[in-house]
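User: Hi! Is it possible to get a structure for several chains at once, not just one? Here's what I have:
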Amino acid sequence: MEYQRPRIALGLLMAVALAPMAMGQHGPRGPQGPAGAGPKGRAFQEVLDRLPAPVKLMFARFGKQRYSGQRVVEFRLDGERYKNIENLIVDGLRSRIEFAAGSSWYGQVIVDNRNRRTHFFPDRNEIFVGVSPRDESIMRLRQFLQSSANGRLKVTTDNGPDIVGRKTTLLQVADPNGNPVQRVWIENTTGIQLKREIFDRAGSKIGAFEFTRLNLDPKISDEDFVINRRGAKVVDSQDRLRAAAREAGITPIALTQDSGALLQNSRAVKIGDRNVLTQTYILEGRRLTLFQFKGNIDMKRLARQEKGLIKTYRWEQGGYSLVLVGEMMPDRLAQLAKFAK
Amino acid sequence: MKEEQNLITKLKGEMALSAEESTELDALLDSSSSIGNVIRDLPHEEPNLVWRSQLNEKLSVLAEKPKRRIGLWKWASGVVVVGAASLAVWSVVNTRTPVIATTNTTIADSTNFEDQLMQSHVESAAAMDVSSAYALDVVSSKETSYTGEEEWSTSDLESL
Amino acid sequence: MSQYLGVMGLQIPKRLDSETEQALIHQCRKRNFDAFGKVVDAYQARVLGFVKRMVRNPEEALDVTQEVFIKAFTAFERFDGRCSLKTWLFRIAYNLCVDRSRKAERSLTEVSIEASDPESDPLEFADERWSPIEMLMTDELQLVVEEALRTMSPKLKTVLLLHDAEELAYEEIASTVGVPVGTVKSRLFLARAHMKAHIEEYRRGEVQ
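Assistant: Yes, the chains can be modeled jointly so their relative placement is included. Here is the combined structure:
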């Protein structure tokens, strides 16, 4: 089954082009969002309407499901590969994840309690307190469906294999040449994502998870969503930013809260021979990365790396080069850059 | 204005230009470089993996054609097979050993700086899409990682 | 319970620096399959991008792109290094596109630049609205640019793509296409003018 609309009428494109500021700012908070509020919302809804019930369930039930289970998660980051075995309990917007033996993050615990996240790190007896992620991962899928409306991506579905004994539907997003971008295996009766794979432009799998156990009727209590560790040091995203900046030897420049962007993590990364302070933000369901470093950058080369929805904006401030990368229009990135302090 | 139209007529007719006109054309090309940027920014799509696999098949046939040093080829094949097997074993062993990263990670300098910035963004977004955790900055520390001495006493797993 | 199979860690194609490229060229001349694979990794997307815009049918573009690399592989011994590897590959690609076009006994649709009214198509670029930020590619703009390329004559399109997309020098394009450098410049200017006129229409919302 393939749902790819022919190239969009240019007249419609003109209408979109006349309101460039609206692009990248619609940011509905719910996973389905105001489907009728604008061409993109309509495009999403039109594509969704033609997809089978499990896909609709996935969007409709996101943040409302109740289950426990175990899943294996693998991803690549900054040249390293991670593998975790997560034991998780999900109750709507509340969740608890424990990282089992054999995990890169063995012993850590994450509890999301609606808007508040606590993340315990046993090796340093530290609890990170921040804002819970909301619907970013499902928002990405929503964006893909929108993009399929203008032919930039292809969305197909098929019957998937049984996973943890449950029937699944495979939702595949691919580029126009058929190279997979993401694959999601959705449990047919609940809309739970049982397996997901994410690919980069080169076709390499850069992130994946798959459930190995699932219980749709778990015993859950309020205590599951509490972490009490006596003597643990409590830190927040600003503490982590300062620590990462110290490690990188960089005076940090960050997006202020007025920008609306929420800082999620900060890392000191060595790229080539340069120390780079990397900050990841969430804004309107999209992920943004702010890179800060000394020295110049080849903008032509950087621009060539802009693929699909990902755009960049570069400026200089405080003797540093800053590059903001995200799935937003360049003028929106430029606006955000004004909030860098 | 008339001179400009004359120049344009000449350009369309691909006629020879005078020295002054050539200079003017160079200036016009300089001033139109922003259009060039639009073309430069056009995306390039990778051919799909099936296409590549077909190409590889065709190339491998061509690669073998002129080489008929059977003895050496057999020996080399043996080495390749043994090497591949070793690599496969190594990969499996390596896969089973989770990576514990230090906070200040070094990204191998195998591509240029700009490519790596973009790759870093793509990877961290993917990591957060699949991993539940976004505090990727504190995945571990340079200190000794957790050894499991303090097991959690909660009975979460009973519900599985 | 299903078993989770880890399949991470595939290699990403890398951009070639000149030192690596020289080493690969050396190996490719000996018809080294692996070395040539790296050349394909580095250039397949760009060559396909060029070919796709030169021929009409996407399937044909994929075939031609394969042919480019097969020809390059078999002819590598004759690659003398007087031009860059990239220029050489694009030269092969250009020649194959022209061959295809001739063999099919059809010429690519051509909307002559002469068809536009010089008064309404002022060929003027000193316009501050064309700032770099304005020029950043959006999805919609990309479609308009592709449409403009489709309606552009092959001779203008070739020069525009080779110069602006692939950054080949005037001299390299001249030797590839077989025309003087001055003609390359003229065609480049006319191609940009055609593109600009099309984008202007888009900006005014006039393209239907």
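Residues 31 and 132 of chain B are 50 Å apart (CA to CA). The two ends of chain B are 81 Å apart (CA to CA).

User: Great, thank you!
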